[in-house]
Amino acid sequence: MKKVEHWGCDVRINGKHVLTIESNCVYGRFLTDADEETIREIAENLLAFVGKKKTSAAQSAEGE
Fold first, then answer.
1. What is the 8-class DSSP label of residue 6?
2. Alpha-carbon distance 11 to 46, whole Å?
3. What is the model's pLDDT at position 61?
4. Which of 1, 5, 9, 35 could disulfide-pair with 31, CB 3.0 to 4.6 Å?
5. Cβ distance 39 to 19 under 8 Å?
């Protein structure tokens, strides 16, 4: 697998940019409590999409 040299993720709420997270920086506007809660929900959805990180025991079991 090719090594990832740079990655980025933009967060928009109701079409408006609120946050950008990149491998070398984080920037965005002042976040309200509602923004923070929405960003947490977005993060939970990203984790649900990719699944939890496999433990070394689970990876070993797959190799058997």
1. -
2. 12
3. 64
4. 35
5. yes
Contact predicate 11/20, CB 8 Å: yes
The 3-state DSSP class for residue 32 equals coil
User: Which pTM does this prediction carry?
Assistant: 0.73
- Give the CA angle between residues 52, 60, 49 to the nearest 5°: 20
> Where is pLDDT greater, at 3 or 55?
3
Mean pLDDT lowest for which of 2-6, 28-32, 46-50, 59-63?
A: 59-63
Is the Cβ–Cβ distance between 17 and 32 less than 8 Å? no
Comparing CA positions, the residue from 39, 46, 5 lying closest to residue 20 is 39
Question: Which two tokens mark 29?
Answer: 């506007």
Query: Nearest 5°: CA angle at 14, between 9 and 28?
Result: 45
Total residue length of the chain: 64
